[in-house]
Write a structure and sequence with these properties.
The protein is of the alpha+beta class. The chain has one domain (16-162). 22% of the residues lie in helices and 34% in strands. It contains five helices and ten strands, in the order βββααββββαβββαα. Strands 3, 4, 5, 6, 7, 8, 9 and 10 form an eight-stranded mixed β-sheet that branches. The longest helix is centred in the last third of the chain and has 11 residues, at 152-162. The relative contact order is 0.17.
């Protein structure tokens, strides 16, 4: 969709959101194991020998320093049983707002992830999917880029990679 940007006055085209259709944990399961899991576009539950793992789909907005547009990601985070159940119970309640602790459960191809990143999940059902913010104190290049922004060239490289143009 093309439009005239209110920020710079130039004609722009929206960037697609870089969305992941499942948490990384789910994608590592065998086909047989996936049959025993529940996955929708917003929720995922996986039961294994270690217990039950619960995930929700969220939005992460990456600032692009040298452009008026931001890069949107559809990423997954894991929640505790209590927070997941509260979120599910209030899924259709437009007035529901909450803040949860979660672990980033999508590993973006531009970074190495040896462990999950702690996040804050902000739920405001009136505006749509929850937003996720990595904890600023956590030392990781992804967290650094989230709080300091990335270049337009880097954003376009990521989009092209996802669209298989690179």
């Amino acid at each position: 969709m093309k439009y005239i940007c209110q920020c710079c006055g130039e004609e722009k085209e929206d960037w697609p959101a870089l969305a992941y259709n499942s948490p990384y944990f789910y994608s590592c399961l065998s086909v047989e194991e996936q049959k025993n899991a529940e996955l929708t576009s917003d929720l995922c539950i996986v039961e294994d020998s270690e217990g039950t793992h619960r995930f929700i789909c969220t939005v992460l907005v990456q600032e692009v320093n040298d452009d008026c547009r931001d890069l949107d990601y559809g990423v997954w985070v894991s929640l505790s049983e209590k927070n997941f159940n509260e979120y599910v119970e209030n899924y259709d309640n437009k007035e529901f707002e909450a803040e949860y602790f979660g672990w980033l459960s999508t590993y973006l191809p531009d970074y190495d992830f040896e462990e999950s990143i702690p996040t804050t999940v902000i739920v405001n059902n009136d505006i749509g999917r929850p937003f996720v913010f990595p904890h600023q104190s956590y030392e990781h290049p992804f967290v650094h880029d989230f709080y300091n922004g990335i270049a337009k060239d880097e954003a376009e490289k990521r989009i092209n990679r996802v669209l298989n143009k690179e």
